[in-house]
Design goal:
A hairpin with a 6-residue loop joins β6 and β7. It is globular, with a radius of gyration of 23 Å. The protein has a 5-stranded mixed sheet, sandwiched between helices. It has a two-stranded parallel sheet with strand order 1-2. It starts with a helix and ends with a strand. It has 12 helices and 7 strands. Helices cover 49% and strands 13% of the residues.
């Protein structure tokens, strides 16, 4: 019994010493970590923003994400501050993909962005209504249709997969597949990464076209109240290449 207690004490001491000498990645880089004491946008601050300024903010934030120059935000305070109202600067239509953490990609915090997510970042009536709400009702200044590399929905659309309710989503990507097949030189299958990229980009353009069919959003864009852009997220680098027509 005494021997077992001695061994237990030695193990405990070893664990404590190891813990003291082994710092987490956060503590090792503690000199580069700071709390960003930022506030959620007010209605007045949102109103003063220009669409181009919002786009520039997202471009800058994406660069910070790529550089791993991220901040620890005062999330608890932001949760409380945004509880009674929200005034996001932009709305992002993203794919469902778990590898695209939208707020992190643009280095934004709670209350900064509306995020609509659906497989293949396709546009249907519900998504269009959500975008109209974000901009016309809630005052967002920018719409981004965000596609990404290695998109499963794009792959299955190219392969013409039929599977339950997924089929209706993939059907909305077919115009992008058709256009890519008409324009692309090379192997036109999902096994070709270049063809996948071509369909992904075309799918973003298709989304932009469908958004502009909204009389509300088209009028806002024509009046300079909002900017509507596309982007493709690189899984390799974290960079968003923006598509602005």
């Amino acid at each position: 019994m005494k021997k077992e207690i001695t061994i237990g004490v030695l193990l405990l001491i070893s664990f404590v010493l190891f813990s003291c000498n082994s710092r987490s990645p956060l503590s090792r880089n503690n000199d580069n970590i700071h709390i960003l004491e930022s506030k959620v946008l007010t209605a007045e601050e949102q109103a003063r923003l220009t669409p181009q300024a919002v786009l520039d903010t997202l471009i800058k934030g994406n660069q910070e994400f790529m550089d791993d120059n991220l901040t620890v935000r005062n999330n608890t305070a932001r949760v409380r501050a945004s509880a009674v109202g929200q005034y996001p600067m932009a709305v992002i239509l993203s794919c469902l993909d778990s590898r695209v953490p939208v707020e992190d990609v643009f280095h934004r915090g709670i209350g900064d962005l509306f995020v609509a997510r659906v497989a293949g970042n396709v546009v249907d009536a519900d998504i269009l209504g959500s975008l109209e709400y974000a901009c016309k009702v809630s005052g967002s200044k920018l719409i981004v249709v965000l596609g990404h590399e290695h998109c499963g929905a794009v792959k299955y659309a190219i392969d013409d997969v039929k599977m339950g309710s997924i089929t209706s989503i993939l059907d909305k990507i077919q115009p992008a597949v058709t256009k890519a097949r008409n324009d692309f030189n090379g192997e036109k299958t999902s096994k070709n990464p270049d063809f996948m990229e071509a369909v992904c980009e075309n799918n973003v353009y298709v989304g932009l076209e469908r958004i502009r069919r909204s009389e509300i959003l088209k009028e806002m864009e024509d009046n300079g109240e909002i900017i509507i852009v596309g982007g493709v997220y690189s899984m390799q680098t974290g960079k968003v290449d923006f598509i602005q027509e």
